[in-house]
Amino acid sequence: MEQFLSDISLIRDGLLDATANLWAPLTETVATMPTWALAAAGAGALALVAVLVLGGRRLRGGERLDRPEPTLRAQSAADDSPTPPPMDPVPLPDTPEIQGLADLLAARGLEGQARDGRLRSFAGELDDLRARLGTVSAGSAAAAKLLNEARGAIASGDIVRGTNLLVRAAEEEDTTGHKHAWTADVHGRAAALTRLVAGDLMSARGDAEEAATLYGLAAEAAPDDDRELRVECLARLGALAHGREDYQAARRHFTAALDVLEAAQAGAHPDLGGILNNLGLACDLAGDARSAEQYYQRALTADEAAWGDDHLNVAAVLNNLGLHYRRRGKTQAAEPLFRRAVAIKEKRLMPGDASLALSQVNLAAALRALGREEDAQDLERKAGLPPPEPEAAETDSETGAGEEGPVEPPPDPDADGIPEETYGDIADPDGRPVSAG
Predict the structure, then answer these.
(1) Is the residue at 409 inside a domain?
(2) Over the range 33-51, which residues count as b (16 or more CB within 10 Å of their CB) and which as e?
(3) Per-residue pLDDT, 347
(4) pTM of the full predicted structure?
(5) Do 218 and 328 belong together in one domain?
């Protein structure tokens, strides 16, 4: 107790030094407060910090992996069959943050669809990024100054400077946490969240290696009792490894995230389905088909329990599992999974939506393999595709934002070439697809 009161006195002295030139009346009041009153006020402040940090951020540990969208067969000029018009992309917001990242990507030579996709992903994350920075409670005056400068730099479009300031703020939190052991968890959580945001900014800039370093440090800084934050950091690491096609590393990170959830007995956690799906995909791409199927099946059960039978997250799992079967020549098992995914998306999405079209083409490919050519062509027309030319080969493809890659089966059912449905960044609880990451 004496050590606790001593620490409170140190905090009081720090407050006096920091506010002496700004709020003299407040300084005099604090100076005359008894130590026990300061202790009570400190406890209340810590409780408020915990509410802000834990309640103010949206947990995204179960985000699905992001992959390039497939290129569908081009609409032929002679084909005048009526098809649903494609949905126009939502215009990018005209903000300094978006423009700042656009300039940065252009300076690095990233143009065209790759640049546009990166910007759209960042735009989807921007509100969450701002919210997270707003919930980080600095443990010292120096860290608070760095955080405020980082927020201002990011808001003005200076992404590089904002990222660097966040890294420095996290280092300051580390230092402060080591000085005061009883508040180490508060500082550790702030350091982890700050590095998570900095890692997201690095990822948006295309610096995957530095982003991975920050995510790893964030996972280490996360307090032991904040399992969800640790899961999110590990999931980010898995997504980056997946993007580098290092599927063994992705498997390790997703397995570690799953271990954290299972240790907490979080069987109904909304992140569980996403982690299981991503782990299944990592196993699939690493060549462990048996484990992949088991994780996909567990993911389907978890997402149905967490989101309901007709949620878009469930549709993504169904497509993953369906493509897993299709790659191995089990079209009879894949067809009802694709059909159910199409039914969910027809209920939840507008006609012409790219996600719905991809599911329709996946189902069409399965029906064609089963000899149901007319049904297959009907689905392809709904998806906006022309009838296939005789003996024309399909283009292999993969998907993004949790969508599937439509392909024709190879002559050898066990041959490579059918890409897996990727469980792209989760359609999270508010329904907005996000990128990882």
Answers:
(1) yes
(2) eeeeebbeebeeeeeebee
(3) 92
(4) 0.68
(5) no
Distances (CA, A) of 73 to 81, 114, 139, 360, 383: 15, 20, 56, 14, 11
In the chain, the number of structural domains is 2
Q: Answer yes or no: is 233 within a domain.
A: no
User: Do 335 and 430 fall into the same domain?
Assistant: yes
- 143 within domain boundaries: yes
Residue 97 sits in the same domain as residue 218: yes
Residue 138: its pLDDT value, please? 79
Among 202, 225, 248, identify where a domain stops. 225
Per-residue model confidence (pLDDT) at position 153: 93
CATH number at residue 342: 1.25.40.10
Q: What are the tokens at 110?
A: 């990233």
Specify the pLDDT at position 14. 47
Token representation of residue 9: 């006195």
Place of tokens 């700004």: 22
Structural domain including 136 reads 64-69+93-225
pLDDT of residue 124: 81
Answer yes or no: do 203 and 320 share one domain.
no
CB-based contact 436:236 (threshold 8 Å): yes
SS3 433: strand
All residue ranges of the chain with pLDDT < 70 are 1-90, 266-267, 387-437
> What local confidence, expressed as pLDDT, does residue 89 receive?
57
Q: Which residues contact 69 (CB under 8 A, 6 or more apart)?
A: 354, 397, 399, 400, 401, 403
Q: What is the pLDDT of residue 388?
A: 64
What's the N-to-C CA distance of the chain in angstroms? 44
**Angle at alpha carbon of residue 230, lines to 228 and 231, rounded to 5°:** 65
400: which residues sit within 8 A by CB, 6+ positions away?
Answer: 66, 67, 68, 69, 117, 422, 424
pLDDT of residue 107: 87
Residue that is last in its domain, among 179, 206, 225:
225
Q: Which residue has the tokens 């920050």?
A: 214
- In the prediction, which pLDDT does 336 show? 95
